[in-house]
Specification:
Shape: globular
Number of helices: 13
Bound molecules: serine
Strand content: 15-25%
Number of domains: 1
Oligomer: single chain
CATH topology: Rossmann fold
Order of helices and strands: EHEHEHEHHEHEHEEHEEHEHEHEHH
Radius of gyration: 20 Å
Number of strands: 13
Distance between the termini: 41 Å
Strand order of the largest sheet: 3-2-1-4-5-7-11
CATH architecture: 3-Layer(aba) Sandwich
CATH superfamily: NAD(P)-binding Rossmann-like Domain
Length: 340
Amino acid sequence: MIKKTILLTGANGEIGHTLLEELTYSGHSVVAIDLQPLSKEHEALCEEVIVGNILDEDVIRAAEKYDINEIYHLAALLSTSSERNPELGHRVNVEGTLNFLQLAYRVGKRIGEAVKFLFPSTIAVFGIPSLEDKIRIGKVKEDDCLMPMTMYGVNKLYNEHLGRYYSELYKRLSIEKETGYIDFRGVRFPGLISAFTVPTGGTSDYAPEMIHAAAQHKPYNCFVRPDAQIPFMAMPDGVRALTELAAAPAESLTRRIYNIGAFAPTASDIFDVVRVSFPDANIVFKPDVNRQAIIDSWPSDVDDSAARNDWGWEPKYDLERTFVEYLLPNITRLYSSYEL
Ligand code: SER
């Protein structure tokens, strides 16, 4: 294995924790960025932790001194948070990404090789006008229904194009060779479910929130209807998707952005599985009209055949395995240690 220097933004976030562990256990050197300091255990895994805002030039400069081979740019304001403050969402999601694309370009030029830029895009880039259409359309392909209904979805779809632009077209009128310094690749994540962290400010949060509340014997008001349906994925599969896409040979890739799927339960399917493990779970469905409308605009599932064909994507966890093998053992340990 060649040891790489990897820049990880949003290291303290939902995906960041698991990805940081995965990358460092694989022997790579990680420079982490987050608004909040990392736990002592996570900090100890990193080459350096830069605590600060991705919009801050000092933060960019501090990261730029490293000869970075790969960037996982996870920092973002999720869909519900961005709907509540669209301008802030735009700044963090678009300007933040632009900052790191520019950084990748400068580092790539300095070290004379392409920096791989791994981007977590989202099912929020899709926008389906009505529930009837959603049911009729079923699984969406990458280039279908790209009419996002949230600031977050608009930002992420635009970022996908920015990534392509910086990889293939940036400064194409200049005399010097300017392209080839960034190799931008992304997956469109479904809702992610982690045993260790609960997301903040997302609209797919009802699934992880329901599960973590039940494990702590806390009541939970689910903010979508029982029939609400979008794709979900267990966090280990999500992290593996990013690292496998990063490792795929460029010549096998036919696109820069890939759908990835795993399972597509309704909220009531999740409720049923939760109740098997936590029969006393106190969960009530109290839909919030606006958050429900966002979920209704996202597809019920995705067609991920391009990822399967090009780089061998295959999820290991379906809904049942996610619960039995991943969530239950880890979540029970997590909350029982809190009770000690
Ligand atoms: N999980 C994200 C959100 O709910 C969607 O990808 O905002």
